[in-house]
């Protein structure tokens, strides 16, 4: 049985190269993706850096995401952090693939950063 190492900080998340990684700021704008994200999901840095994180989410999930994101902004509490979630992710070719999202949040100075491991399940 393989033990999955779960990151606790944004820096730990950035050190992961085996699965797609995405980081967004408190406005929901993508600030970082790793090389594996580009290979697996086909999005390049030019495609996604500075774009809303919702561009990689199915349209049916965007409202739920935006509501949870707004709730976190107001309360700094979330039910989706630090445990695996099976959700669809959109590739550049607009395919939906099932991925395990492991989402962390870290406050750095006065801004929240949100990072996710998006491990493909198929």
UniProtKB/TrEMBL annotation:
Q: Gene3D superfamilies attached here?
A: PAS domain
Q: Which CDD domains match?
A: PAS (cd00130)
Q: Where in the numbering of this chain does the PAS domain appear?
A: 9-51
Q: Which InterPro entries match?
A: PAS, PAS-like_dom_sf
Write the protein's name.
PAS domain-containing protein
Q: Which organism is it from?
A: Adonisia turfae CCMR0082
């Amino acid at each position: 049985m393989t033990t999955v190492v779960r990151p606790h900080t944004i820096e730990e998340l950035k050190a992961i190269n085996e699965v797609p990684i995405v980081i967004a700021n408190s406005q929901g704008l993508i600030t970082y993706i790793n090389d594996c994200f580009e290979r697996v999901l086909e999005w390049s840095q030019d495609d996604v850096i500075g774009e809303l994180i919702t561009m990689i989410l199915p349209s049916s999930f965007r409202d739920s995401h935006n509501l949870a994101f707004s709730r976190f902004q107001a309360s700094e509490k979330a039910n989706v952090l630090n445990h695996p979630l099976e959700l669809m992710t959109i590739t550049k070719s607009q395919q939906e693939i099932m991925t395990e999202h492991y989402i962390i949040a870290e406050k750095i100075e006065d801004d929240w950063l949100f990072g996710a491991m998006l491990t493909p399940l198929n």
